[in-house]
Structures are given as structure tokens and as C-alpha cells.
Amino acid sequence: MKVKEALKDLNLKINSILVEAYTEISEEIKNIKKIIDDEKSEEKIKLIEQICKGEELNEKEIKNKYLSEKDKKKIKTIPDTVDVINDELLDTVEIEDKTYYYEPKEKGNIYDSSKKVVGTYKNGKFNLS
Predict the structure, then answer these.
(1) d(CA 62, CA 53)
(2) How far is CA 17 from CA 4, 7, 21, 73, in A?
(3) What is the distance between the alpha carbons of residues 16 and 8, in angstroms, rounded to a whole number?
(4) Which of 71, 83, 100, 101 could form a disulfide with 67 if both were Cys (CB 3.0 to 4.6 A apart)?
């Protein structure tokens, strides 16, 4: 009978050790998966940035279209107070107590605060739609 009890104790110890090892391994696997997901997201973002720069595409638009919500959260954002369109900074103008942003060039677009095109800058004049 002593052998039977000793075997039961050994079985319990082995099971306890296996459960503990399984838990630790599972946690490490979760950490590794998170690291892999983070690296994949970073690489996707870098790839889109390089393609947009090389092909002169609107980076913000492409990211919104092709990245998942999870990937979008990992983007280091530019503050909303600064807009970059085709590597040109926008100028600001106030018209009727509203602030607009415009491309200071002939036939440049005028944008409202929600980044929608609301007119054109032509011949030094602001033409709102």
C-alpha cells in the first residue's frame, strides 16, 4: 500500500509541475505572438510609407484604406494642427471668422478644419465653393 500512495504523490507532483510549465510556456508564447504582431504592423506601415513616397500617393488615405484598426493604432501621428500634403505645408487664412488651410500656389486647394476641400486659391484670391 505504501507504494500505491507514493505513486499517487509522485503523480500529483508531476501534474503540478506540468501545469506550471504549461502556464509559463503559454505566457511566453503570448508575448512572442504580440512581439511578432507589433513587428508586422511596423513593417506594414514602413512599406506603405515608402510606396507612397516613391509613387507620390496620399499616405494618410492609403493607410486608412489598407491598414487594420489595430495597425492604425500603432501609427505615430502628426498633430492635427499641421497638415502635410505632397510634402508642402499649408498656409492658413481666416474668412468670415472661420479658419481655412490652403496650398499657396496657383489653383491650390482650400481645406476646412475637417480637411475637406472647400474651394480653390486662384490668382491670389480665395474662391470658396
Answers:
(1) 11
(2) 20, 15, 6, 39
(3) 12
(4) 71
User: Does residue 78 form part of some domain?
Assistant: no
In terms of pTM, does the model score above 0.70?
no
Domain that holds residue 11: 2-72
Q: Are 109 and 121 in contact (CB under 8 A)?
A: yes
- Nearest of 65, 49, 126, 69 to residue 95 by alpha carbon: 126
- Could you report the per-residue pLDDT of 89-105, keeping only the tens digit for each? 788 888 888 888 888 88
64 and 88 share a domain?
A: no
For 47-77, the pLDDT digits (tens) are: 999 999 888 899 888 998 999 888 888 776 5
